[in-house]
Structure formats: structure tokens, C-alpha cells
Amino acid sequence: MTRPCVRLYRGAVVAAAVGALVVPVAGGTAGAAPLAAVPAAAAPSPTPSGDEVRDLTPEVKQQIDQAVRRVMEQANIPGVSVGVWTPDKGEHVKSYGVADKDTGRKMTPNLFMRIGSETKTFTVTAVLELVDEKKIGLDDTIDKYIDGVPNGDKITLRQLAGMRSGLFNYSQDDAFFKALTSDPQRPFTPQQLLDYSFKHPVLFQPGAEFSYCNTNLVLLGLVVEKISGQSLADYIQEHILDPAGLDDTSFPSGNEFPQPHAQGYTNQTATGAVADTADWNPSWGWAAGAMISTLDDLRVWARTVATGQFPNGERMISPATQKERLITPPTPIPGAGYGLGIFDVQGWIGHNGSLPGYESLTIHLPSAQATLVVLLNTDINYKNEEPSTLFGDAITKIISPDHVFNLPSQPAAR
């Protein structure tokens, strides 16, 4: 098996290297070349300069609509909701297509959606809050908290959060893929997920390279639980969701899914046939990808996570810790840097998410205080491109031409 890089996106697509949560294709082998080495201490990725965001005039909104519909048609997207918000140049919130292909029920902005790897931003926030409380340190090694981790005496919490641990990504394991697709409603425990990873040798020494890895987040979730004495879900609820006012965001324990929600469509199945995944159990993603949210909650979260400040003005993360979070060394994907559970693509700060049936993109442009959220009900690639980032590219070309959410073409592997 070649080194797993999960999904690499192109153009408008953020690579799994910068944020998807996916399972392997049937057979479980990854088909892309290894990610190039990237020094952990490299400088932050550059932020482009220039005009920020255009006025969202009727003409610009019409251009957004046309671009969204074009991507939907090209990539065969059932439904998508898009939100663009600025403090002084207007907003545009709209849904397109259907939430349920069988009934024809329309996509609407209020639907609950699975957000996949955007969960990572919440888990890492929990870690950083504990850092601010001086209960843990970013440069502590993971063996201080969790036993049995390969290279555990060398891998730091910082390297886990920054995807530079060298651990094998459990979701790339063949046995894991078979277990998940044979019974998509089965629950997984964090230890079961780690077991799939730890039977593989490490990919590289800690800090030597960047390699997107869900195993890292499972370990960080366990650290939060051990130090806080709470379940990860309860900690996130009490210390992040409640203070941020994110009443429609949740961390499910099983396959529960609030109503109304969109059905989700994937071809990441045992046979490759398209399946509806709304009732799949996301526990296999746990701290890396199990959460649920809405368009409006993610609008709030985009600014909150990018600034480290709750909507009421109180600090979520101290300025010093937030500054460390936003140091985003380059990845093998040109133009994309990854910090502590967050990326920077041409000035847009945030994360994307992808798990079978659903994709999301939540990004904030601090220089313009603008936010873009995209939620859709499929993760099926279009010509090796992630659909969520196709939308991100198409929309930012219109609203922020000097800050286009673009990434170069890369081969796809799951």
C-alpha cells in the first residue's frame, strides 16, 4: 500500500491533506504517491494582498447562483446550501436542488447536516482551552497521557494537531474499510480506531512531514477526556457550543440525526454502488468527524474559530494561543497551509469536512471579516475533485478574486 493521503483535491478542492474525512475505496488501497516532505518549522503560508470582497449586488448574487448551478450540473450534486456574509457588503443565503432524491424534498438553509472533519476544529479548540488553563502543554508528548502510541515519547500534541505525527491513518486500513462498509450502522470505540492504526508502522519521524491523519484527532480527543474528566461530547457542549450559542450543533453518540436533515449520497460502499448514508453511524469519525451542524451555526463558528473569540466578545482561546493556532506552515498542496486543526488557503481561514454522503466548507476571510459556508449532500468526486471545494473555488472567484480558494490538481486517493 502506498502512503495514504486520503483524498487530494484539486483547483477548488482542499486536499484531504487539508481536511477531508473519508474511507478508502473498495479494496482499501490508496493510489496516490506519497506526500512530499514539508518541514514542520516552515514559515506560515503567505496571505495574498489586494481587494477583499465585492459588494453583493443583485448582479453579483446572480453570478453566484449561476456558478453554483453550473457546478451542480457538472458534478451531479443533489443539493447544496450556500451562505456568504459580510459586515458591510451584504449577504447571500440560498439553497439549491433536493435534500431527498426519492421524494424530491427541496434543500433548505435550515437543514441539519453532518460536517465531517470540521469536527477537528472543535476538538483542537478543546485542546487549546486546556492549554490555556495550563493543564496540558502543546509540546507535551502523547505518552504522557496515552499509553501504547508508536513513537509516543516523541510525538507532541502540537504535531498531532498540525498533522505532522507520522502515525498511520486508521481510515486507510483495509480491515477498517471492510468493517465499516459491511455494517455502516455499527459503533466504533476510540480504542478500536487506534488499533487499526497502530498495527501499521509509522510513516515518518514526528515533525518530518505533513500527512493528514484522523488518528491524530482520536488521540487528542482522548487527552481532552482524560484531563477534563468529561466525555469529549460533554466538554465540547459545555465549553464551546454553549458559550458560542451554537444551539443547532451537536456531537452525536451514535447515528442520531436531528430533523429536518438532508439525506446523504455516497459511492464509498463495499460494491461502489451509491447509497443513502443518513442513518450511518459516524462514531468511526469520533473526534475527527462525527459532528452535526447547520448553515447558520457554521456562520457563527467560522468567525469564532478564526478569531478565538466568542460572539459575546469573551475570549475562547487566549490571543497568544490563538496566534500559535494560526501559524500555518505550508503543506504539499501549493497555496495551502495547515496550522493547529485549521487551514489557510489564500487568506481564507477554516476547515472543510467530508464523510460518506456529506461535505462541508466553512471559511472566514479575516481581512474582510467575510464568511463562506457550503453544505452539500454528497461526497462523490467529480473528475477526482472534491465537490465542496469546487463550490469554494467557483464562489470565491466571484466574491474575492484576489483571494480565490484554489488548489492545484492532484490525483485522488481515499
Q: Would you kindly provide a written description of the structure presented here, covering whatever features stand out?
A:
By secondary structure, the protein is an alpha+beta fold. It is built from 11 helices and 11 strands. It has helices at 58-75, 119-132, 157-161, 174-182, 190-198, 214-228, 232-244, 286-289, 295-307, 319-325, 387-399; strands at 79-85, 91-97, 113-114, 265-266, 275-276, 292-293, 336-338, 343-345, 348-355, 358-365, 370-376. The chain has a 7-stranded antiparallel beta sheet with strand order 2-1-11-10-9-8-7, sandwiched between helices. A hairpin with a 2-residue loop joins strand 9 and strand 10 (358-365). Helix 2 (119-132) crosses helix 7 (232-244) and helix 5 (190-198) packs across helix 6 (214-228). The chain starts with 57 loop residues before the first helix and ends in a 15-residue tail after the last helix. The model is unreliable at 1-19, 22-50 and 409-414 (pLDDT under 50).
Describe this structure in a few short sentences:
With 414 residues, the chain is of the alpha+beta class. The protein has eleven helices and eleven strands. The chain is 29% helix and 12% strand.
